[in-house]
From TrEMBL, chains A, B:
Major place of residence: cytoplasm
Role summary: Catalyzes the oxidation of 3-carboxy-2-hydroxy-4-methylpentanoate (3-isopropylmalate) to 3-carboxy-4-methyl-2-oxopentanoate. The product decarboxylates to 4-methyl-2 oxopentanoate.
Pathway: Amino-acid biosynthesis; L-leucine biosynthesis; L-leucine from 3-methyl-2-oxobutanoate: step 3/4
Residues holding substrate: 96, 106, 134, 221
Name the record gives this protein: 3-isopropylmalate dehydrogenase
Enzyme Commission identifier(s): 1.1.1.85
Named cofactor requirement(s): Mn(2+); Mg(2+)
Name of the top EC class for this enzyme: oxidoreductase
Gene (name only): leuB
Amino acid sequence: MRLKIAVLAGDGIGPEVTHQATNILRAVAELGGHEFTFVEGLIGGTAITETGSPLPTATLDAALECDAVLLGAVGDNKFNALPPDKRPEAGLLQIRQALGGFANLRPSIAYTALSESSPLRPEVTKDVDILFVRELLGGLYFGAPRWWDRESNEAINTMRYTRDEVVRVARVAFELASNRRQKVTSVDKANVLEVSQLWRATVTEVAKDYPAVTLEHQLVDSMAMHIMNIPRNFDVVLTENLFGDILSDEAGVITGSLGMLPSATIGGAVNLYEPVHGSAPDIAGTGKANPLGAILTAAMVLRHSANLEQDAKAVEAAVNKVLNAGYRTADIARGQQPGQTPVSTQEMGKLVHQAL
Amino acid sequence: MRLKIAVLAGDGIGPEVTHQATNILRAVAELGGHEFTFVEGLIGGTAITETGSPLPTATLDAALECDAVLLGAVGDNKFNALPPDKRPEAGLLQIRQALGGFANLRPSIAYTALSESSPLRPEVTKDVDILFVRELLGGLYFGAPRWWDRESNEAINTMRYTRDEVVRVARVAFELASNRRQKVTSVDKANVLEVSQLWRATVTEVAKDYPAVTLEHQLVDSMAMHIMNIPRNFDVVLTENLFGDILSDEAGVITGSLGMLPSATIGGAVNLYEPVHGSAPDIAGTGKANPLGAILTAAMVLRHSANLEQDAKAVEAAVNKVLNAGYRTADIARGQQPGQTPVSTQEMGKLVHQAL
Ligand SMILES: CC(C)[C@H](C(=O)O)[C@@H](O)C(=O)O
Ligand SMILES: CC(C)[C@H](C(=O)O)[C@@H](O)C(=O)O
């Protein structure tokens, strides 16, 4: 198996966690006799500083020639005063759009070993296994018109969806649910928004092609509550772009830390892989960052771009083993118990490597 | 003290809980020698069924002549197929707009007696006392253009804010924080949305007039997480309309149930009071509804429309007393302990009345 992976480490803790993820990919390649090659590229604040652009052409060209793109994180407080289209995040949104992946998969799993890390009671998080399917190329993120007019002191963003955009991401959700617990929960605000009415009608229509899968609709406000109250009730959760942004971060609470959450964006020319967490500039370079989100993201590369399901499972099992052995980065050390060992970013990466 | 209150009970559990709230207001009037009069009006699904409109002119006219409007809940699955502007919820949005209140205050308080009702650990919810200030007349709820074109199969909603709209609601937040713990957390998505950039810049400007109050900015996705992880860190949380809708429902998780949450909308011609919970048609008429959200909403009427702070506190204390005595409606009976007594909507109302 040959795989060419563009590595865009980005800002803050991006490089540290990505380094651990590529280490794991190298290990998998060596163990299985695969040939993985890595091409590095600039993105985000680092790219602005070095080239003036959050997504240099060289990065995009390289990414489009690869089989997968592994991204660290982007964002740097230094650029807070800039308008959205000049910020590090613009690089992320541009590459998402250029690669064309519209279905962002974000698993939210409760690890037994981490049940003490969550602010939720263990009996609430027990056995939770949610897969968010977040539409990633539509809605307020990309809708036009969008402006902030400093003369009239007014600003506008546009939430826009077409039926086709909803159909394609809904299909991904139903396909995935078919191989899981056969349930899709679609999130919208159909009691207020026309866009949500289109969303709900379209998802309902797509559901007819998947008679074995149960479809339920939830309003986004209720859903924000249900995810905390009864997370075990959910299997695949299908959302538009911004609702998915909010709810999948919220679901990090189940796992105990955003630092544990991986994501994969599929459906486009090249799949894009990024941990859900941000660049966390405040802890960059301190060794406090949790690399498991990035490592689990590497597992998703194996699953969705290399078709190496067994290896993906092996990486996930290695993560589980290390957690069960009590190793904890700072973010998952809440309520530290006897038998737990605090470790750095690098140590955690090494431990997963050894467990593999 | 004289007060004329329009009572719009609405749909589902609306009438049952509102009935308990007006009972409490009557009791306060009697005890204090005040003259409260109540005028009933139709709204929501009930109004559609009886008059064809979710907000009949008669209701609006009556409401505008009152000193306060007490609303139950609106929404009925019967009308799910209708477009947003024909649904029960349209009546709610129309009356919000007509009354002109732009600052929706939603306290989220952790009651010690209910610490077992929350899916969050008691050490996380302990002493939490958050006041959401949700902008209620702008954003995606009211922004134009808005449409779902069934020919082109495309739909649009518009998130729109002007500087003035942000200034006025921000002032309310800072004023309230000045009398609380001197902290405002403003929520936006300024790394992506132009509207959020206007929001952030404006709030930052308003903050200059309140040097004693600390202002912090949070992205809505991070905030959805922080509210669960570190709810004690927040005092006043200022949000645009939809973010406030989502986050304040989520914060219901802290209290243990949405059924506990009151709200008041101030700043307009007539203040509007509504519990945060919905119409819950599935439990309507079963006696399972929790009337405490509506009763605590009545306390907010006393506070914000009658200037009877002592009486408002007395009602809140009565609620606390009843909870401490172990009485529980179904929604707050999670993890039932010995010493707890399950009660119906009506019994709960009576108990608060007696405790008063
Ligand atoms: C950094 C930001 C633009 C991004 C988003 O909002 O999509 C992030 O929050 C995410 O969830 O991947
Ligand atoms: C019923 C609905 C229109 C309403 C809203 O979204 O504002 C409700 O969820 C609320 O929070 O008061």
